[in-house]
Amino acid sequence: MRCASFDGSDQEKNPMPPLPRENVQSYPRPPALEAVPQRVLIRLGGVIVAQTTRALRVLETHHAPTYYLPPEDVQATLRPAAGSSFCEWKGAARYFDVVAGDTTALRAAWAYATPTARFLPLAGYIAFYAAQMDEAWVGDLRVTPQPGDFYGGWVTPNLDGQIKGAPGTRHW
To answer: In the 3-class helix/strand/coil scheme, how is the chain assigned residue by residue?
Structure first.
């Protein structure tokens, strides 16, 4: 699948819906899974890591959305990394080093090989820590990482509310 470029040259032919205003405090618990109508782009080391119009996102109370990309739209090399984690909603995650050009970001991506039934569409999809990438975009909005070093949400300027992850917010 060809994705339009981010230089604006395809904007008139393939307009992207803008990101609506959202309040992270109104996101559900248990989390929701939804398709992303905007184009998602990630770069590392001056190389496109992934580009897709088929991303999914997980929305959970007080979290910035976490974006998951289909593996066939990931152009970087993903090298299995040590360790795993467990999410009460999605199941066991495995981690990857991301290799793009001459740059390697350690444990910078993760996936659920066999997620729970509720999140089965995420099987094999890849999520990336925005903090470890050079840049990430949702539509025409540049992403900033969710605060802290534990969560992998992507903060965009359309989000309102208190986002979990900053000091003192990890366990509430």
So the answer is: CCCCCCCCCCCCCCCCCCCCCEEHHHCCCCCEEEECCCCEEEEECCEEEEEECCCEEEECCCCCCEEEECHHHECCEEEEEEEEEEECCCEEEEEEEEEECCEEEEEEEEECCCCCHHHHHHCCCEEECHHHCCEEEECCEECEECCCCCCCCEECCCEECCCECECCCCCC
For the chain, what is the mean pLDDT? 88
Domains for the chain: give ranges and CATH numbers: 32-153 (2.170.150.40)
Between 91 and 172, the more confident residue is 91
Instruction: Give me the mean pLDDT over the 57-80 stretch.
Output: 96
Residue 99 to residue 47: CA distance in whole angstroms: 10
Q: Is the pLDDT of residue 19 over 90?
A: no
Give CA angle at 57 (55, 60), nearest 5°. Answer: 175
- Closest-CA residue to 52 (of 64, 66, 35): 35
Is pTM, for the whole model, over 0.85? Answer: yes
